[in-house]
Amino acid sequence: MKYIDEYRNKEIVQYFAGQIKKISTKPIRLMEVCGGHTMSIQKFGLPYLLPDNVELVSGPGCPVCVTSREFIDRSVAYSRLEDVIITTYGDLIRVPGSSSTLEKEKANGADVRIVYSILDAMLIAKKNKSKRVIFLGIGFETTAPSSAAGILKAKTAALNNFYVYSAHKVMPPAMETLIDEGVKIDGYVGPGHVSTITGQGIYENIPRKYNMGVVISGFEPVDLMQSIHMLVQQIENNDPKVEIQYSRVVKPEGNVVAQKMLDEIFEPRDDWWRGLGILASSGLGIRKEYEKHDAEKMIEVEVEETREPKGCICGLILRGEKKPKDCKLFGNVCTPSDPVGACMVSSEGSCHAYYLYNR
Amino acid sequence: MKSTDDKILLGHGSGGKLSHELITNLFAKHFSNPILEQQSDSAIVNIATNKLAYTTDSFVVDPIFFPGGNIGNLAIAGTVNDLAVSGATPRYLSVGFIIEEGFSLAKLEEIVISMAQDAKEAGVIIVTGDTKVVDKGKCDKVFINTSGIGEIDEVRVKISSGEMIKPGDKIIINGSIGDHGMSVMAARNELNIQTYIESDCACLNNLISDALQVSSKIKFMRDATRGGLGTVISELVKGSNFGIQIDEEKLTIHENVRGLCELLGFDPIYVANEGKVVMVVDKDDADNVLYSIKESPFGKEASIIGEVTNDHIGLAWLNTSVGGKRIIEMLSGQQLPRIC
User: Fold this and answer.
1) Partner-chain residue, chosen from A14, A347, A357, that has the shortest CB–CB distance to B326
2) What is the pLDDT of residues A56-78, one digit of tens each?
3) How far apart are CA A132 and CA A136, in angstroms?
4) CB contact, 8 Å: A93 with chain B?
5) The domain that contains B121 carries what CATH number?
């Protein structure tokens, strides 16, 4: 497969493994903050290629995992309304809320549909004019632009029965909070797709303020091994900076068109992250000019009181302070088929990745 | 062929005149054999062995036609293969149809013809059947159930349990993985993907019986259907007193399958096949079995993909293509909806 096989080349991966081993002298912890990286690292078995002193930990990079239970509870409540169709990316439907999941509601007769794109959701709205169609907008800077584009298009086309319920978040506040709170990290493997949109500027504060490097990485084994090598080099030379390994996709300035669109539709707001609590300006709310398509503003619903599950340490895992294997529930009470916490549900969740590939 | 306008009516399942016509003009016509033609309440059949293998499977695939086959091909291959991988020789099948009112008779005939052809090639006889028609919306076009009986030699009854497996045994698969699941996925209109992936749907009983002829040391077989190769391997190793390692580099995955899996985020080792058998064979016989499989039209891309180990008891490891390692765990939840 062109443009993929080159980046899964065994010799090159082994070369970087050898180089990392050669130059790295001290114990370090590198954190990836993108669920796609977590999956790739586990799927290709990369930890087995690294020396013992280089440890990889997963951070809050899975959007489903950091989303609050309250978001699920509210989505469940929406789904119970007679004239509502819920449209969502597939990952979300099995995430446990306080007392139910969208999957359970679907079995009970709610109209919940999995879509691969917001455009599919809009098509459903177009075909079902007598229903209110809510798209659950989840994800970081990667998926937020497509939600923005959808809202913009809905406004232009006067698709008045189409709404977005936004749980969109932005990455930098979480990355800085982890360091502020003393989580032990020596460098960040920067998220590839988020950075495709944002560019590298959003991370510049991290080397400046915290003396810590960020290498924006692609998703294939060669990408990740090269990024780890670059981080190890920075650490060994005491030269922290923001670098782009994934240069075939990520431009330093990012995707300016998408950035403008994000800014047009969304405004920053304080938001709650699992494991981190409320972070200032870390969420994306829909601007007033577009509130006709904002489910939170336009659709009133009674939401049950949010209850968190007992014993689940998703929060600590998302902070990189614990690994999935440290959780008492992992693998026995909490499995992908019967998940307790969100980290086990999402295919990008670190518990899910560990369960599948590295128990 | 029926005119494209002809539809299945509720009356076709009523047991009356329409039912009778449907049986005579469609099912009996294509499935024709002396036992079925008796049209008695039960089929009376001859069996050459003391033991029987007996299995059943239902098919609800959506869409019912896909590149490389249709729901009828699946219904024959699925049951024939379940018998064959148990070490049995498939002999007799039953076929039950549940049809949605309004379904096209021409399409039904196309399905029935595929089934008749596959049954003939596999050397099995459809000896009994049933048809029900349900109100529109009560099922999705057509659902099919097939049951099958196979003859099985005493010496082969241990194959399905896997109790003869020992460290050192080799693991063989008769070709590429993931074709069926991704074929069906690509054929779904809602994804709007334009690619042509052919399902691997095939009856494997001839391939298997040839392999059993060249070796008495085939210790285990299973068809890697729903859940794919990964599920077969992880089920096999769970609770066992051996480990398994699979070499990712030895797996054949067609480019179009890999491409679509990449696009949708699926792991091909968990994607369904409908014409793939996983065999565990004594290392001394592995090459002979491999050559035999490669002789079959359904085994051209067969390879030895791994082995049974003394290490990591109860776990299956994949040596990844880049030199890493990871475990192969049972898939939980669904990767794909209604693929068989």
Assistant:
1) A357
2) 998 888 888 888 899 999 999 99
3) 13
4) no
5) 3.30.1330.10
